[in-house]
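Obj.: predict assembly geometry.
Materials: sequence records (below).
Method: joint structure prediction, all chains together.
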Amino acid sequence: MIELKDISKSFRLYTQNSAKITVFKDVNLTVNRGELVAFTGKSGSGKTTLMKMIYGNYLPSKGSILVDKTDITKINLQDLIRIRNHKMGYISQFLRVIPRVSTMNIVSDSLIKLGSEKEDALAQASELLNFLDIPRKLWNLSPLTFSGGEQQRINIARAMICNYPYFLLDEPTASLDNKNIEKVITLIDKLKKNGCTIIGIFHDEMIRNEIADREIDVNSFK
Amino acid sequence: MNMNEIIKITNLTKSFGNIIACSSITLEVYPGEIVGIVGESGSGKTTLLKCASGLYKPDSGEVFFRSDDNYVQNICNISEPDLRQLMRTDWSFIHQNPRDGLRMNISAGGNIGEKLMAIGNRHYGNIREAAAAWLEKVEIDSSRIDELPSNFSGGMQQRLQIARCLITEPKLIYMDEPTGGLDVSVQAKILDLIKKLVEELNIAAVIVTHDLGVVRLLADRVLVMKDGHIVEQGITDQVLDDPHHAYTQLLVSSIIQV
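Observations (raw structure tokens):
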């Protein structure tokens, strides 16, 4: 379960005349286990900001964020890193990897990091890459030269290969064709069946209708 | 004394004349993590690294180091032989200038191999084989094993130093701008090498760098230093994406996008 209690967020931009931009005030929100909540609102309304706070990527100016009853805004960094590495998957639109590392290694490393045996991790990575229609001849190449849609699927694979109880999805399907969107939806459905708690941002209304249990317009938090 | 950290620095202060390089720095590093230190030239990053690794003696403060057997020593006041022993077996220091970390008058293979000898390896054939393998890992053709480092380019010397420092699988790696002189293609390989080593061996690394791209890909968390103080610290993507201190904001907003 994820709970946001009285969350406010503002940015102080010292390099730009110390401008202060307030994004949210007193946000209260609960996302239950096994539920998929979709954030909606136009570009710039703060969907990503809210999600990044839940991931510990942005610091709230005030309030608390509870993941499994642990307030991630108050714990030490090692514990936060542990929660991120073992409990939460974050999939953004953009793939960020060390150059020259192969696709296969990027995807399997996620599991190896969590303690899986190498052979097992490679087998699971192959299965997932196959499912997501990444041609086998690309597996030993770095994804940095791949198409946008392929990179996005690698990004999905490297996170979804892990059975995290929480997923944060920031437009994971933005540059995918319909066939691949269907595949990603299948993966998300599978996560939900396993009791995974998910918060997602999807511009495509069809996708939201298909998988979201609840929609929340972040403008209501202003 | 019981501690989980591999190294624990408390209230460390170091001045040179009337210049305070490090002012009351407190820092803990745990096994399995990579800590990045960023900040402008002269902010005290290298001084902190050198105090942490026993190369400088701080004016005040403590540096506790935990060995494998959970034996904790304060490296600010241990004997010179004990300190040398730790430097040989427990941590490595990768210098900004490879000439500070290499022995220029012995061969590339000798530079790597002597570290193995220092920790007790004696079989010449095995040592040479391991040295050759490490040359290949840092992308130096192993046929050049008998050449002197001075025959190598600056970037190659840096890679040789990295191989020399990593071959003994130290528990803690200190890196002072390790990728500064490397061409970009090799840099990626070295970053991957360091990251893998830290994950597989559950060791720790502290990296001082100007390159925020390197920090983003490599470090779990980051400290920002200015004028001898840590002005901000946190998980790497938090500090880089949501910097709170004016200096960090300037640093992050000054990156040239490629």
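Conclusions so far: The two ends of chain A are 23 Å apart (CA to CA).
To do: check interface contacts against the pulldown list.
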